[in-house]
Amino acid sequence: MSLTNMDAISRRELSAKRATTSNDIAYSIGDSAFGKILVARSVVGVCAVLIGSDDDALTNDLAALFPTSGLISNEPRLRGDLNKVVRLIERPEAGLDLPLDMRRGTPFQRRVWDALRAIPCGAMVTYAALARRIGEPNAARAVASACAANAIALGIPCHRVVRSNGTLSGYRWGIERKRALIEKEARA
């Protein structure tokens, strides 16, 4: 093996190790029934699950979410995480057994996200009801903003929140995906 090849291998190994010991974020992109899925992991846990149609757009979205972090494409390390997310789309009742890193949220957002994680598969709640659950009955708009700031699709199931009249409202990854997720969970 040439010295150049050894240097390239060493740099890749160093990059993979760096993503587990620093502020770097390792990520991988795969395909699902809802389009492309990007799963990103910090040293704490999964910090992003993004849904889209284009690898570059997903990577740019991740970069915007974590502007001070180095992003490292690391498919082998994240293959298991990506498979669990894709499996969750196919079988939502199975849940997502992955550690989540919600540190980028404010304390209020994290309270909302924790409450979202407690909503059972197939159930829905209104923004107002979710605000009451976290002890902030007048904070329905703030709850909606916290849902919009969620970067961990499916792991923090903000798709389970609807308007007070039961209709679907905006969803970071598209209203049609939200509808499809709700319908799939209702059949589970």
Automatic annotation (TrEMBL):
It comes from the Bacteria. GO terms for biological process: methylation. Its EC number is 2.1.1.63. Residues 107-186 form the Methylated-DNA-[protein]-cysteine S-methyltransferase DNA binding domain. InterPro entries: MethylDNA_cys_MeTrfase_AS, MethylDNA_cys_MeTrfase_DNA-bd, MethylDNA_cys_MeTrfase_DNAb, MGMT_N_sf, WH-like_DNA-bd_sf. It is an enzyme of class 2 (transferase). Keywords: DNA damage, DNA repair, Methyltransferase, Transferase. It catalyses: a 4-O-methyl-thymidine in DNA + L-cysteinyl-[protein] = a thymidine in DNA + S-methyl-L-cysteinyl-[protein]; a 6-O-methyl-2'-deoxyguanosine in DNA + L-cysteinyl-[protein] = S-methyl-L-cysteinyl-[protein] + a 2'-deoxyguanosine in DNA. One of its GO terms (molecular function) is methylated-DNA-[protein]-cysteine S-methyltransferase activity. This is Methylated-DNA--[protein]-cysteine S-methyltransferase. It comes from Rhizobium calliandrae.
